[in-house]
Amino acid sequence: MTDRSSSQRLSTPRTSRIPNLRIDPDTLGRLTESVARFFGTGRYLAIQTVAVAAWIVLNVYAVSLKWDPYPFILLNLAFSTQAAYAAPLILLAQSRQENRDRISLDEDRRRAAQTKADTEYLARELASLRLAVGEVATRDYLHHELERVRELLEALRPKPDPAQTEPAHRPAKDVP
């Protein structure tokens, strides 16, 4: 049995003889978007209007150059071809814009959900701080309680009899 090369084996598919043209879809998409954007400009409309007017003038008045006589079938064919290419280009540009919008919307939703979660967390933290502050003694509360303790101590302290003990000297006034 002779060993045939792999290109002659029936079990091995042949490679294509047509060269494989690799086109980056993103580059093609950007190109089609720029063409579709150009189709929507006033500049394009002005250029097209001048071209059509020149076409008609040359075909009506230039006797030796009449390549497309009056019904302008060649001009109609050019418009049809242009429309056949313009419509898919515009649809492709719209599709790419929809994809960008969807990605942007998804990012906005994610950001909004994160913001909502952050806000809820901060609201819970604020509520816990309010509860904690409610349990903390304030200055007025402490002052009032100390005043009550002082009054209780004064009420419990026996009052000295002024007749029994005469102080040898006068106490100095408290200096604030």
Structure description:
The protein is mainly alpha-helical and 176 residues long. The protein has one domain. The chain has helices at residues 25-39, 42-61, 73-135, 139-156. Helix 1 (25-39) crosses helix 3. The longest helix has 63 residues, at 73-135. The protein is elongated and about 145 Å long.
Task: State the main characteristics.
mainly alpha; 4 helices; about 180 residues
Question: What is this structure's SSE topology?
Answer:
Layout: H1 25-39, H2 42-61, H3 73-135, H4 139-156
Helix pairs in contact: 1-3
Sketch the major β-sheet: none
Low-confidence stretches: none
The 3D shape can be described as elongated
- How many domain regions? 1
Structural class: mainly alpha
Helix content: 55-70%
The chain-level mean pLDDT equals: 82
C-alpha Rg, in Å? 47 Å
The total of beta strands comes to 0
Number of helical segments with 4 or more residues: 4
The portion of residues forming beta strands comes to under 5%
- Helices and strands, in N-to-C order? HHHH
From the N-terminal CA to the C-terminal CA, the straight-line distance is 121 Å
Provide a brief overview of the structure.
By secondary structure, the protein is mostly helical. It has helices at 25-39, 42-61, 73-135, 139-156. The protein is built from four helices and no strands.
